[in-house]
Amino acid sequence: MQHLATPIPEDAIAALHVGDTIEISGWILCGRDAVLPKVVAMVRDGTAGQLGVDLHGQVVFHTAVSPAGVGPTSSNKLEIESSIAPLSAAGIKIHLGKGALHPETVAALDEHNAIYAVIPPVTALLEAKTAERKVLAFPELGMEALHLIKVDRYPAIVGAAHGRSIYE
């Protein structure tokens, strides 16, 4: 088990391989199909700095944040998977979710020294490891707004790294 803390350094990502188990601590971004296209638009138009968080070395968890907790959503939904390449180019190092990604997405992760990690769908466990939460942007989306949460030792398995996928 490798322990990673945000922001995640480039060399830590370079050392990970498909099937490695990791634990992530620190502040991470949370968003899914309603908000990630908005964040990509902010990256493209140069306004992502308004989020107040440096995307370099950051983690994006594909989830909504509700009073019941957090749990992964399918990362291969069009709006989510299409955000992975541009967010990786903007500095995101780890994308957390569930499900297989297309080969083109796996290749884009490799191009930007980023990875995709599968997180088990265990909402109660993750809620116990979530210390703080706040809405970062797009509050009108409710639980699907862009959130920033502070986590302690979130477990995950590297599902795609260096052009390979655990789903091959």
Helical run tally = 5
Please state the overall shape, judged from the principal axes of the Cα atoms.
globular
Work out the radius of gyration: 14 Å
Order of helices and strands: EHEHEHEHEHEEE
Distance between the termini: 23 Å
CATH topology: fumarase
What does the largest sheet look like? Answer: 5 strands, mixed, barrel
Approximately how much helix is present in the residues? 10-25%
Low-confidence stretches: none
CATH class: Alpha Beta
Strand % is 25-35%
CATH architecture annotation name:
Alpha-Beta Barrel
Task: Write up this protein.
This protein is α/β, with parallel strands linked by helices and about 170 residues long. The chain has one domain: fumarase (Alpha-Beta Barrel). Helices cover about 25% and strands about 30% of the residues. It is built from five helices and eight strands, in the order βαβαβαβαβαβββ. The protein has a five-stranded mixed beta barrel with strand order 2-3-4-5-7. α3 links the parallel β3 (about 60) and β4. α2 packs parallel to α3 (about 80-90) and α3 packs parallel to α4.
